[in-house]
């Protein structure tokens, strides 16, 4: 199950589960759209992969007998921060951004 992390790992802004601004890589590293577009240029600082919009988990179960939705699987409350420095991230992005995610 996708872990819905509560913040951008770079600028630390809040990314609640219903936020359309949340972006994730395939490892669930989570950033805001502003950081992904403006600073990361679609390069994950950790794995180097691209980002997609994080799917929004529904609040409630819509099927009888199925325990689904935030009601049963709430968002994580553990804030995550990238361990890499700004300088490191800039060099990493520069090295990778010209290659499309499908070719990395
Ligand atoms: Zn951010
Ligand atoms: Zn990643």
Protein architecture, described:
By secondary structure, this protein is an alpha+beta fold. It has one domain. 18% of the residues lie in helices and 8% in strands. The chain has helices at 33-40, 86-96, and strands spanning 22-24, 30-32, 52-53. A three-stranded antiparallel beta sheet has the order 2-1-3. A hairpin with a 5-residue loop joins strand 1 and strand 2. The longest helix has 11 residues, at 86-96. The radius of gyration is 15 Å and the shape is elongated. The model has no long low-confidence stretch (mean pLDDT 97). The site of one zinc ion has 7 residues, from loops. One zinc ion binds next to loops.
Q: Compute the number of structural domains.
A: 1
- List unreliable stretches of 5+ residues: none
Mean pLDDT: 97
| Strand content bin | 5-15%
Oligomer: single chain
Give the distance, in angstroms, between the N- and C-terminal Cα atoms.
Answer: 25 Å
Measured on Cα atoms, how large is the radius of gyration? 15 Å
Give the spatial strand order of the biggest sheet. 2-1-3
| Helix-strand pattern | EEHEH
Shape: elongated
Largest sheet: 3 strands, antiparallel
Fraction of residues in helices? 10-25%
Write a brief caption for the model:
This protein has helices at 33-40, 86-96; strands spanning 22-24, 30-32, 52-53. It has 104 residues and is α+β, with helices and mostly antiparallel strands.
């Amino acid at each position: 199950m996708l872990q819905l992390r509560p913040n951008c790992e770079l600028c630390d802004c809040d990314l609640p589960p219903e936020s359309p601004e949340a972006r994730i890589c395939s490892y669930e590293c989570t950033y805001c759209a502003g950081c992904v577009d403006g600073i990361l240029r679609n390069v994950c600082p950790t794995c180097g992969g691209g980002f997609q919009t994080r799917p929004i988990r529904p609040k409630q179960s819509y099927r009888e007998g199925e325990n689904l939705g935030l009601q049963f699987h709430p968002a994580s409350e553990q804030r995550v921060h990238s361990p890499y420095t700004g300088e490191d991230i800039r060099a990493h992005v520069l090295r990778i951004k010209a290659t499309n995610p499908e070719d990395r």
